[in-house]
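Structure representation.

___
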Amino acid sequence: MIAAGFDYHVPRSVADAIKLLADLGPDAKLLAGGHSLLPMMKLRFAQPSHLVDLGKIADLRGISQVGNEIRIGAMTTEHDLLHSALLAAKVPLLVEGAGWIADPQVRYKGTIGGDISHGDPGNDQPALMLALDASFVLKGPGGERVVKADSFFLGLYSTLLEPGEILTEIRLPIPAVGSGWSYQKLKRKTGDFATAATAVLLEMKGANVAQVRIALTNAGATALKASAAEDYLAGKPINDASLNEAARLAMSICDPTPDQRGDVAYKVAMCGEMTRRALQAAHARATKA
């Protein structure tokens, strides 16, 4: 199908984009990479009267280090994440995760901010953000606010973004030196959403877990933080028994939707398996300080 008619706007600054959203009202939609919005428009599931394209706002792109924090402009593409030497050195989990997103054509245009703002539990970035303890900078008519990733995702396609607000920047605390990481994803083919996936960031102290963050993709109405599994692993070694229990606890919070990728029981089981694999891979990469 062909999208319904709309007016197209290209602001050159964040301030101009915010003003446009305020002037145009609720029928205006932001265009980032377009890989979520445009297919919905073609199917007439979304019919905005105005598109506000953020692609010409240079301030929304880039990756930098500020103190012990990595800052990423919301219009930075997945391709840029995948090929960033700074991220590879400081936040390799995000680089690994970006490599699992869709295919090269999508990664050249798809943006990290668009992925996060869409609030789709099948997208990969939400779980990666939970595992990395990210914060998001939101700007709107009322000014700027910073919110944590673990409170940002409210439900299916629902986030803390208020009408007229724009996600402008992602902030990531740099993981401790020696941390292990992994994003394990099961999908049917290149470019597909995950049947199930798990992101893990792991810090060891000797033979035992000092701290771990575990987040699940496509296991519920939002990306899920497996807090009970995290709490269970703290202070314990990574072995068959602890992996089995962590996987069980991760599975216990899953509530996936059955579809062509599998029924509920299969998806829940695969969430457990991806959690096990991600913990094993992260443990193999971690320095046992």
Remarks:
- The chain has a mean pLDDT of 94.
- The domain at 65-173 is CATH 3.30.465.10 (Uridine Diphospho-n-acetylenolpyruvylglucosamine Reductase; domain 3).
